[in-house]
Amino acid sequence: MLRMVAVELSACLSLLHCVPAAHGQAVSSPNTGAAARAATITPESTDFKLDSGGETIPAGISSDDWSSIRAAYEAGRHAAFADGGEHRARNPGQQWTTHFDGRGFTTTPDKGAWTWGLELEAYGWGDAVPVATKSAAVTAHGELVSYVWDDLLTEWYVNDQRGLEHGYTVIARPDDASGALVLDLAIRGELLPVVSQDSRDVRFIDETGGAVLTYAGLTVVDAAGRSLAAGWKVAGERLHLSIDDQAARYPLTIDPLAQQAYLKASNTNSSDSFGSSVAIWGETVVVGAHGEDSASLGVNGDQGSNAAFNSGAAYVFVRNGTTWTQQAYLKASNTGEDDGFGWSVAISGDTVAVGARREDSAATGVDGDQNSNAAVNSGAAYVFVRNGTTWTQQAYLKASNTDAGDWFGHSVAVWGETVLVGALQESSAATGVNGDPFSNAAANSGAAYVFVRNGTTWTQEAYFKASNSEAGDAFGFSVGVWDNTMVVGAYAEDSAAWGVDGDQSSNASSQSGAAYIFFRSGTNWTQQAYLKASNTDGPDNFGISVGVSNDTAVVGAWREESDATGVNGDQSSNSALGSGAAYVFVRSGATWTQQAYLKASNTEAGDAFGWSVALSDDTVVVGAVSEDSASTGVNKDQSSNAAPDSGAAYVFARSGTTWAQQSYLKASNANASDSFGSSIAIWGHTVVVGASGEDSAALGVNGDQSSNAAIASGAAYVFAVTDWVSYCTSQTSSSGCVPTMSASGVPSLSAPGAFSVNGSNLEASVNGLMFFGTMGSSNMLFGGGILCVNPPLYRLIVKNTAGGASCTGTMSNTLLEMLAQPQGGPLLVVNQAVHMQTWFRDPSHPSTTGLSNGLEFAISP
């Protein structure tokens, strides 16, 4: 699939698994067919300015209605239309026009002195056979243009707000085929291709030798997650792609969850640990690099010097449409060697907090003297605010009881006008809220501090200690905030209690860990709950990570030892040392209870599942920083241990009160010791994962991932999360209806009635049905439309679409109905991919049928 966007182009054939560099959900299908992730095309420069501000919904219009209006508007703006003997599509967001001539495409940007495009010349197995000399059979509807070359190959383009997606769907491998699948693509325009040494990347250069576009990171994986050999090479003025597909399962398809972006620092250097902390809010991502070495001060200073070893930095990235760019480079106002600025980061709206746990000033409170170094490793936190696109430092925060070695700023969280800062080595023996901060009778017991803003002025509002504060508990190692609720983790707490509000007084389970919930009423804070694991054991380190959203909290325990997998498995065994776990708690009124016990789908000793956690509404993401699989991308082979400590992340979704694992995430360039999962953040359907040990020397967004020239420079990866994916092309009905498939809920076997597959924009008051299959996607002409589901097909019961006016018909089926469907059909099991489509009667159409697009989803536990 080829995705083209304003400042980046990601390219990937649809017979390949596409993990696009630009954000947004890929249009093609699922995670069951053989797949290859091909390429990211990134312009080296841009003239476009990005505005990180959001839209204002007009008064009187609901957010759902506004989303529908915007979607219809975008579809109209991106529609392809006939232009003489070809078709043309304008992409206003990307600011270029693409011409489709039945042989290939040519893109011309509004600004820039180049044109670029591709044309399929030949494909086949073993040797590429030239395609027909005449143009393909071309159809165009709305945003989609299709070229049907023959019975096996269809080429398609979708022009939408994400860019231009270009793909080839190959239905099957012929029985008499021998050798690898190959495609030969002629290159249009003036740019010349240069293939990387590992054959995974292609850079397109202009006459000066400057790179204008870059394909990055070709990877091929089959339905079982097995890596397939694939690579680019230049053959004259052509690109030649070869894929060893002889053992692959057809049709070849894509994943329902896509990597949006690969983020690197603008001044990448070895040991910077970029990605050791990440945070996201809306269209803005913040990434910390506590080992960065520049001596600059403040915002957007000189990044080139390395005169302040491990002083640290933070980087702000913003998304505009489909494009991520770096907006700011943040440094402390008192940058000092070994301060570790960026050890922790947090964001809320236009406010960012950055922790520097080894900062040395002896100042106390807000905006004190930053220049002394009289309290070594006391720590500090810094507040930055954005006005338009300009960032400035607003406050310099210190503890009210600053002391050497306290590590104030080890953790930070922010919500609106409130910042929470953890100091895990603070030593007061106080308990509860606003106790005596000045004794040092409980070494490294830990504390947390609440600061609030009035206008532009910050003051400390509260000083938190555990209700059972003791030496060495590390209270404040992790913190989280949501409105008036705060959670603080103490991974080294020693109580043997289980569950919520148990006996805090025992020390019978060394370093089992605990978490504490605090609640604010007005300006008064009280401890609301004391959380322990449902299988407390030492040294599980429950509380190493925490997250909170509304009335839900999640707590990680990276050294937990059960060999259970999935959700709510057997907690009692200790046969997988250091495999790790996470625990979900929910609040009713003021009462908290444990709702779920989460484990990886591939639990193994030493994986450290739970090192990082993040929570947004009904979605939890858990990082396993020491997981060992060498797979790349999404939902691939979890069983290999060929890349020790490469790391992984796991997405869990809740339907009602039931949690199920939704996705297994790996870096697009997974390598040993990359520590993917070092940090996790989530906002809505966007997940950010840090990999502090990643080694590429790339700069900025979607650079070359293949080099390992900057050891432990670090990276961050942006993913888009969804439970299902739409693919294939709807058949426009005789009344002009464009039938559309969608879904709601989580496709979980535990709650099959809560997942609904819906058809809309159907002909009104006619009979129809939905059908499904488990053998992957199709793209075959059928009855005037396209059959999107590979046979064998299984029909659900006939229903009437109802509705009144044209295109108001609807239809809906639940997963429960699919499990009980009358034909018997296939046994639907966990992790199986299902493809569905809607058929309805269209009496005025020549074929008397109508077909929707396709929809793919994977069954969860």
Describe the structure.
This protein has 861 residues and is an all-beta fold. It contains 2 helices and 61 strands. The strands form 14 sheets. Strands 5, 6, 7, 8, 9, 10, 15, 21 and 22 form a 9-stranded antiparallel beta sheet that branches. The chain has a 7-stranded antiparallel beta sheet with strand order 4-2-1-14-13-12-11. Strands 51, 54, 57, 58, 60 and 61 form a 6-stranded antiparallel beta sheet that branches. β16 (192-195) and β17 form a beta hairpin. The longest helix has 15 residues, at 63-77.
C-alpha Rg (nearest Å): 27 Å
**Number of contiguous helices:** 2
Largest sheet: 9 strands, antiparallel
Oligomer classification:
single chain
| Residue windows where pLDDT falls under 50 for at least 5 positions | 1-54, 222-226, 251-258
* Ends distance: 31 Å
Mean pLDDT score: 83
Strand content: 35-45%
Estimated helix fraction: under 10%
Please outline the helices and strands.
Blueprint: E1 2-4, E2 9-11, E3 35-37, E4 39-41, H1 63-77, E5 80-83, E6 86-91, E7 96-100, E8 104-109, E9 116-125, E10 129-130, E11 137-141, E12 144-148, E13 153-160, E14 163-170, E15 181-189, E16 192-195, E17 202-205, E18 211-215, E19 219-221, E20 227-228, E21 230-235, E22 238-243, E23 258-263, E24 274-281, E25 284-289, E26 313-320, E27 323-330, E28 341-348, E29 351-356, E30 380-387, E31 390-397, E32 408-415, E33 418-423, E34 447-454, E35 457-464, E36 475-482, E37 485-490, E38 514-521, E39 524-531, E40 542-549, E41 552-557, E42 581-588, E43 591-598, E44 609-616, E45 619-624, E46 648-655, E47 658-665, E48 676-683, E49 686-691, E50 715-720, E51 724-727, E52 740-744, E53 756-762, E54 767-773, E55 777-782, E56 785-789, E57 794-795, E58 799-800, E59 809-814, H2 815-819, E60 833-841, E61 849-858
Antiparallel strand pairs: 1-2, 1-14, 2-4, 3-19, 5-6, 6-7, 7-8, 8-9, 9-10, 9-15, 11-12, 12-13, 13-14, 15-22, 16-17, 17-18, 19-20, 21-22, 23-50, 24-25, 25-26, 26-27, 28-29, 29-30, 30-31, 32-33, 33-34, 34-35, 36-37, 37-38, 38-39, 40-41, 41-42, 42-43, 44-45, 45-46, 46-47, 48-49, 49-50, 51-61, ...
